[in-house]
Specification:
The protein folds into two domains: 172 residues, 3-Layer(aba) Sandwich (Rossmann fold); 160 residues, 3-Layer(aba) Sandwich (Rossmann fold). The chain is of the alpha/beta class and 365 residues long. The strands form two sheets. A six-stranded parallel beta sheet has the order 2-1-3-4-5-6. The chain is globular.
Length: 365
């Protein structure tokens, strides 16, 4: 018997970020495996949408049929606790958490506390939570989510050809990430500015529209360090353009301050690329020790030293590339991830019948 579920996603479902790619792969492959899947957008601007977007989202949720299985991306779901609580008894909510909202970089203390409390309340209304890494599952303990209500479903990774590299000349460094503070582009530029005497070119692929202010600051930093001839900002790339960048790369770099999994890191491993990244979030679980050098997030000195080590010592690049080629064989496929996702939905929703065991809607006096 086919199952039916509704995916609620923030913004444009076709956006090329890791979270959206995960949602899209899972929804499409569930549909191909016999599920009836609907994908509905809750509008732009989450987790801080306009009042009009929030009102429209509320109406969209009100229109969902009783008993529906609803997978809600927590970028929006975590910011709408009143809506989640109001429909907790009639909908089978499953929150899909890529990383907790309060762990975004650049938040001040009041904003961080507000997002934490908002997501905590929303998660209390869900039958269960699907996360993309064991690291995120551990982080949700602070939100009061019982471990029994959490399922870990890591992203899949498609087969990829091994990178052929730059083929001589300056080493090609690749960073695939949206231009947002959490991804650490500014730190990377500062670290590379101290390595001008080495032969390298940095290629950055990622949308500048998610945080225009950050994108502008990155452009100014490139000019400030006089690196315009060494750093190429490609903007958002389609699959063909990305594949060409991976093919020509010698090294993958991503100095994130947090990652709920790190799909771009897994893609780099799938191409057999050595990695330089950080110990933040799920990155140590994604990147094995023999495939990458991981430094503390925000540590410019350590990042520069790791870059220098890999740029200067061909044997070190070769060692890490060998580790990456071994790791690529252990990455889950999308078929495996979709099967685990379906099993998680069955366990969280199907076995409990129509009645919800989530918290009752909150009432205001």
């Amino acid at each position: 018997m086919s199952r039916h579920c509704i995916f609620l996603v923030p913004g444009d479902p076709d956006a090329r970020t890791g979270g959206f790619l995960y949602d899209r792969h899972i929804a499409r492959r569930l549909s191909a495996s016999g599920w009836q899947v609907e994908v509905r957008s809750l509008g732009e601007g989450w987790p801080r949408p306009t009042a009009a977007v929030r009102t429209t989202a509320h109406r969209s949720v009100e229109a969902l049929p009783d008993g529906a299985w609803v997978v809600a991306d927590a970028l929006a779901y975590g910011a709408m606790p009143e809506i989640a609580q109001a429909h907790a008894q009639r909908l089978r909510w499953v929150a899909l958490v890529h990383h907790p909202l309060a762990l975004e970089t650049g938040l001040d203390a009041p904003a961080r506390a507000e997002l934490f409390e908002s997501e905590r309340r929303a998660l209390a209304a869900a039958r269960g939570v699907i996360v993309t890494s064991a690291s995120t599952a551990r982080a949700l303990a602070a939100y009061g989510v019982p471990r029994a209500r959490i399922a870990v479903v890591e992203p899949g990774t498609g087969p990829a050809p091994l990178a052929s590299g730059s083929g001589g000349g300056p080493l090609s460094l690749l960073c695939v990430a949206t231009l947002t503070p959490r991804k650490g582009h500014a730190l990377l530029l500062d670290a590379l500015a101290g390595l001008r005497d080495r032969r390298w070119v940095l290629h950055c692929a990622g949308s500048p529209t998610m945080d225009p202010g950050c994108a502008e600051a990155i452009a100014q930093r490139i000019d400030g360090h006089r690196l315009r001839d060494r750093v190429v900002l490609h903007g958002e790339c389609d699959a063909r353009q990305l594949e060409a960048l991976y093919a020509r790369a010698d090294l993958f770099v991503l100095p994130s301050f947090h990652e709920g999994y790190g799909m771009a890191l897994a893609e780099a491993l799938a191409h057999g690329l050595p990695v330089i990244s950080t110990t933040a979030g799920a990155i140590p679980d994604t990147v094995p020790a023999d495939a990458g050098l991981l430094v503390a997030p925000g540590d410019e000195t350590a990042l520069r030293a790791a870059l220098a080590r890999v740029l200067d010592v061909p044997a070190e690049r070769a060692r890490l590339a060998t580790g990456a080629r071994a790791a690529r064989l252990r990455l889950p496929s999308w078929e495996q991830s979709v099967a685990r996702f379906a099993s998680a939905l069955e366990a969280l929703c199907g076995a409990r019948g129509q009645g919800s065991t989530a918290a009752a809607p909150e009432r205001t006096p």
